[in-house]
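Reproducibility note. Readers wishing to regenerate the assembly model reported in the main text can use the exact inputs given here. Chain order matters: entities are listed in the order in which they were concatenated for prediction.
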Amino acid sequence: MERIGVLTSGGDAPGMNACVRAVVRTALAHGVSALGIRRGYAGMIDGEFELLTSRAVGGIARWGGTILQTARSMEFKTPEGFAQAVENVHRSGVEGLVVIGGDGSLHGARELHKAGIAAVGVPGSIDNDICGTEMSIGVDTASNTILEAIDKIKDTASSHERAFVIEVMGRRSGYLALAAGIGGGAEIVIVPEHPTDMDKILGEMKAAHDRGKPHFIVVVAEGATPTATEIRDAVAAAHSGFDARLTVLGHVQRGGSPTAADRLLATKLGTGAVDALLAGKSGVMVGIRANETVLVDFDEVLVCNRPADADLVRLDEIIRL
Amino acid sequence: MERIGVLTSGGDAPGMNACVRAVVRTALAHGVSALGIRRGYAGMIDGEFELLTSRAVGGIARWGGTILQTARSMEFKTPEGFAQAVENVHRSGVEGLVVIGGDGSLHGARELHKAGIAAVGVPGSIDNDICGTEMSIGVDTASNTILEAIDKIKDTASSHERAFVIEVMGRRSGYLALAAGIGGGAEIVIVPEHPTDMDKILGEMKAAHDRGKPHFIVVVAEGATPTATEIRDAVAAAHSGFDARLTVLGHVQRGGSPTAADRLLATKLGTGAVDALLAGKSGVMVGIRANETVLVDFDEVLVCNRPADADLVRLDEIIRL
Amino acid sequence: MERIGVLTSGGDAPGMNACVRAVVRTALAHGVSALGIRRGYAGMIDGEFELLTSRAVGGIARWGGTILQTARSMEFKTPEGFAQAVENVHRSGVEGLVVIGGDGSLHGARELHKAGIAAVGVPGSIDNDICGTEMSIGVDTASNTILEAIDKIKDTASSHERAFVIEVMGRRSGYLALAAGIGGGAEIVIVPEHPTDMDKILGEMKAAHDRGKPHFIVVVAEGATPTATEIRDAVAAAHSGFDARLTVLGHVQRGGSPTAADRLLATKLGTGAVDALLAGKSGVMVGIRANETVLVDFDEVLVCNRPADADLVRLDEIIRL
Amino acid sequence: MERIGVLTSGGDAPGMNACVRAVVRTALAHGVSALGIRRGYAGMIDGEFELLTSRAVGGIARWGGTILQTARSMEFKTPEGFAQAVENVHRSGVEGLVVIGGDGSLHGARELHKAGIAAVGVPGSIDNDICGTEMSIGVDTASNTILEAIDKIKDTASSHERAFVIEVMGRRSGYLALAAGIGGGAEIVIVPEHPTDMDKILGEMKAAHDRGKPHFIVVVAEGATPTATEIRDAVAAAHSGFDARLTVLGHVQRGGSPTAADRLLATKLGTGAVDALLAGKSGVMVGIRANETVLVDFDEVLVCNRPADADLVRLDEIIRL
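Running the prediction on these inputs yields the following structure tokens for the assembly.
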């Protein structure tokens, strides 16, 4: 293999740049050149390939976002678009591809693999909703961003009889909500995997108020039932003893300089992806298990559905006592 | 004067603890003892006075919130409540009072002053909406919290054709929105002092999109017209070329470890307040002008309405070019 | 088991408070009461035991340091001191002990276990030098503190032909130096496990200068050969083309609000320790492997010597290319 | 005036980029084009001028360092170098110059002004040692960096009988040491303006230990007498009851994303500098007083010596009680 390509795709995640750096420098360490493909599959179709030197990726590990940019491409899902993408890869001389992104991006990588292009995936998704790896790139940074928000709210919370409802990311996964809720000491965490009765939430709030709790913090993943806004409205209407305030963190959670753990994970996975390509692997994602990189077949990654982490659910129940 | 009292009131602001520390230690430096009054005027009525030693305020300067807690008291506005408060102050031996808070709190301090209790105010309000001082306690910390959120959104913004609408505090003042908008490079800032036509906002967004701007950041003070939610909805409906995402920071802005500037300002004002009481002053607020503390009559502070800072409005217009 | 005790010992590490919170609340969840023992083994000898309620540990997870304080106790190593400690534990009604700390602290726990007191250890050490666990409490926070320092130095580094030598913690372990060096993009990392020739360091620096590198960052663990100061002095004397500046982070690395990962790890380990005691275990440390808690015999933990992480050494070599 | 030039010179300071952004966009708002001059006076001699568009300075305000880089130029002080610099400015079409930097840089600007080139200075120096302005660019960010270090040390300090000696920047000015020392609650602050007897320092330390203080934090500006290292050594030798640990922050203090206050100050000063040039001014520095920009003659700026801020010295004495 003489040339590899790397792209970032889907929602961006802090640490993607550290992964790109690792891909490029591991390739160079093996005498393999590296091309960056801009804007994910969209750029693959539009032919936006560029040579990445060692210097080009110097200093990028500390930046949020991705220097390669991402995009969602409808065209890639059409036969014409896909064919164009495949043709461009071949024309560029790229013999192996590293795709950094979430489930949707890995789906695309599987299609390319089936079309005969060696492709290895790297899990990048702040939601931690990808199977086959303990952790995805961006999760750690996003957890810390949420935690800082909860900590700040706690500074002010104790002064008032207030319920704070905090909406965090996680359309189908409660990982971020649980991790930050446990760390931050939320009174209740609502996750997509476990729809919760509004009366139960209000009941716990009332009980907490009666026990003399000065405040009540609810962390709600955006895919949860009920939603953060619904909870805020219900609390406001319910005479729970608490006044209700809403915080919606939104895309703040996707940004920020990646943490040490995210940069290290991204480096391990990026290096592991190039190692895998050079070992002749394709159709696999590089995951992390017990501090070691592992290769997991795309089929295994993409059929599964991560349930809520049972350990975290238990810890959350203990900690909120 | 042998004993002073200190309380924090209204919305809490980072730096209030540094101010309490300064009040107590300046008093002690003059051989005057200090009582803390819990939960603002509510605690004054309920008799929640406690001796504050030098050690009791050691290490508190770095914490957000206020160790004395705050509350809003309806009872204080009744003749009975007020009379009880005055009686409790007299009974406690407090001969001079330092009131840290916003306009509402200073109103209360003026009433106490009129009732014969020596009272000096300190401006504490993250909104920077208090007249007679260049800066209030908490503004600097809140500005930085907002700025970090904008910076993080910018990490991810460049990857997508997205408009980000960020609601920040400021019910009647656009100071925070302008300061953070200028620092963070927002494309447009909407402030309460200048109601803005929705068509103008959408027009600027469209023009930016046509000029090739990859993203568009709108910072909106919570008291502005239109509101952040209205703008988000209008953008979503408008086919402006941008997808619209909302961030509502909420009470995150009230928390956090106070910045160096907030701790220093709070220390200057707290020391200045005790200096003023010991010099026989009452019915005044300690403000900061040109790095010096100044005394401003409550009447002057409370009748005025700070207009939007004309310099900031001009800078915002220049910087967004 | 009706009552457990918990203590923190040795150098403090961010996350110890989250672990104390988890120990107390897990105990309470099982109907077991919890005593905190102040100042580690010193307080055990002096009889500083106090009941920890759920509320007493509310909100502590976000604070650095340890509310139980730590100390190093010479007396505990004497037969008299040890006997007094054992007696106090028995008198307090504590039937199981959770000891949070590094190797020295776990040594003590092993002695107590041998003396018939049920004792379970939890690895707390920012150096990540404890065997039997992938990660210790405090490592993640310290890594981020170092990384932020490197990032800040990089802001200024590119303007000048300067070599920056940064001394970080790690008397016998290069983990922190490697993790932060890889994440931060250091040009060379010097670890205790691999003494390095000064000429090699200067040679790499000279080569980097000749290749046009605007700056050169050396991360040095405090136990490494040569030391940070020696390297700074050698660079200054060597006409390497670089001017040399030294940063010594010192105890800054032990502080700070624990990160999300440290709080979560500490919570898992604390809960796991109580689970182990309640299951009748003693003489073991709770470690983390592949996201699961594992129990490792003290003997296994304390005889070993963690070598430098070979994966990190390889990544460091690749990334610095 | 149809074209202005802007350069950053001397030690870099966070906020310089926000100032460059303001200079460029204010110029453009007036229909004036802007050239950036790389590497300060060195680049002026070497002819490193480049056109700065509005987009070229988009998004730079949040980065530490300076996109224009800085350098110290010996050649500029020679008649030949100076003549070359002047010639290059004329050849570039630059009719007015904005020089951002410290005293040395403003000296250079004064020489250019005398040579007939319209030149306006902007104070950029983390030390806050420039006369004629309340505040310089970078001071606020550096203060916060130091404060965070002190806060982190305090987390761990209370656990041990330790004296922490922290060296901070300030070769001739104690501003940073005082501001951070007051905010962080240092037990003693040693500044260059007031040489301090070692016996006095040790005496206060001993007295603190005898009063039961669990730790003792000494903040020392790098230009102070005695130095941080001397104090650490003296404490170690003195049997003061404290163990002594040293932290040397070094160039960490020059980096970091500029704070809200630094970005706003830099924006005001940058806009003010272009306003001044367009109003026909030269030979002046733009300072800030009472939130307004003021113009101060270079001669006034450069002859003076800022004494230690008497207010801060007093506050420090009160707060450490």
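We highlight two features of this model. DSSP finds eleven helices and eleven strands in chain A. The domain at 141-255 of chain A is CATH 3.40.50.460 (Rossmann fold).
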